[in-house]
Write a structure and sequence with these properties.
α2 runs parallel beside α10 and α5 (132-146) crosses α6. It contains 10 helices and 12 strands. The longest helix is centred in the C-terminal third of the chain and has 18 residues, at 265-282. By secondary structure, it is an alpha/beta fold. The strands form 3 sheets. A 6-stranded parallel β-sheet has the order 2-1-3-4-5-11, sandwiched between helices. It is elongated and about 60 Å long. The chain has 2 domains: 5-124, Rossmann fold; 132-262, Rossmann fold. Residues 30-284 form the Periplasmic binding protein domain.
Length: 313
């Protein structure tokens, strides 16, 4: 099957080296669509899925939607036109992605979601996500311990369109709110962005100079917050993240950020491809649509074992 002109333009515009593997789709192809690879979490997903697909004999089409639902819709159109056998997706919005996934299903192309859920069941074959509530509780328990069960703190929240942002925040508060001496003085979104988190943290520091801790909905925002705190000479402020990135691992090892929560991005993506392969060959996965993978607390005790969103033995 030849690469369509529209798809070729999309891949070139994305500027992703090696976005299409295999020879002009000579092999059956799996599309892998995620947010920007500038975030190492999403790059790990794409790398994990692509590696497993190649191992199983598939070509891959690796595309980026940049958290833009309209762009994601165009990429689905491209993947459908190219005749891919399955789509692995970390979506661009719980509500906004339903139509694209259903459109692929109606064309006989199954979708396997990772990391983020959509709000409808029965349109994707699998939705494999981290147990965000369990992970958030782990992070909150460590945060409470690090804070000595008292002090003013701020929370950085992810994108409102992302179900995970709300689940993590709820998990944090269900633990932290049990401690009356821990006071939330600010709760602001930084949209999963390191740059936004830096700016938001600067504003929070100005309004609340007595702040003692920051709990973040992901590691990228935690890195931005810590950079702002460091620039202000406030290394005394405790920062806890969520994701398990190598950047935060390195910060933990240097005594910077204190902890994070590992969600197994690489393994999730590989599991999705294995399930896609089984579905392509048999018409079923043998598993429930919604699947949770537990998270792991990362702190100074085990940070050295963390590598690319996976914990080494």
């Amino acid at each position: 099957m030849k690469l369509t002109k529209r798809l070729l333009m999309s891949v070139v515009a994305l500027g992703i080296a090696g976005a299409v593997s295999g020879t002009a789709f000579a092999a059956d192809t799996i599309a892998i669509i995620t947010p920007s690879h500038d975030n190492p979490f999403f790059k790990a997903e794409a790398d994990g899925a692509a590696a497993k697909a190649k191992e199983l004999g598939y070509a891959t089409m690796v595309l980026v939607h940049d958290d833009d639902a309209n762009k994601q819709n165009e990429l689905f159109d491209n993947a459908i036109a190219a005749g891919v056998k399955a789509i692995i997706l970390d979506n661009a919005g719980a509500d906004a992605s339903v139509a694209a996934v259903k459109k692929a299903k109606d064309k006989g192309i199954p979708s396997f979601l990772i990391d983020r859920e959509i709000t409808t069941t029965g349109v994707a074959v699998s939705q494999i996500v981290s147990n965000n509530y369990q992970g958030a509780q782990l992070g909150a328990e460590e945060f409470v311990k690090l804070m000595g069960e008292k002090g003013n703190y701020a929370e950085l929240v992810g994108k409102e369109s992302d179900t995970n942002a709300g689940i993590r925040s709820q998990g944090y508060h269900d633990v932290i709110d049990q401690y009356s001496d821990l006071k939330s003085v600010a709760k602001q979104t930084a949209n999963w962005s390191q740059t936004e988190a830096y700016t938001v943290m600067e504003s929070i520091l100005q309004a609340h100079p007595d702040i003692k801790g920051v709990i973040s909905g992901n590691d990228t925002m935690a890195m931005g917050a810590y950079a702002a705190l460091e620039a202000a000479g406030r290394k005394d402020v405790i920062v806890v993240g969520f994701d398990g990135s190598n950047d935060v691992r390195d910060s933990i090892k240097k005594g910077g950020i204190k902890a994070t929560v590992l969600q197994p991005a690489y393994q999730q993506a590989q599991n999705a491809v294995v399930q896609a392969d089984k579905f392509i060959k048999t018409g079923k996965t043998g598993l429930e649509e919604k699947q949770l993978m537990d998270c792991i607390l990362i702190n100074a005790a085990n940070a050295s074992k963390l590598e690319t969103f996976a914990l080494k033995p």
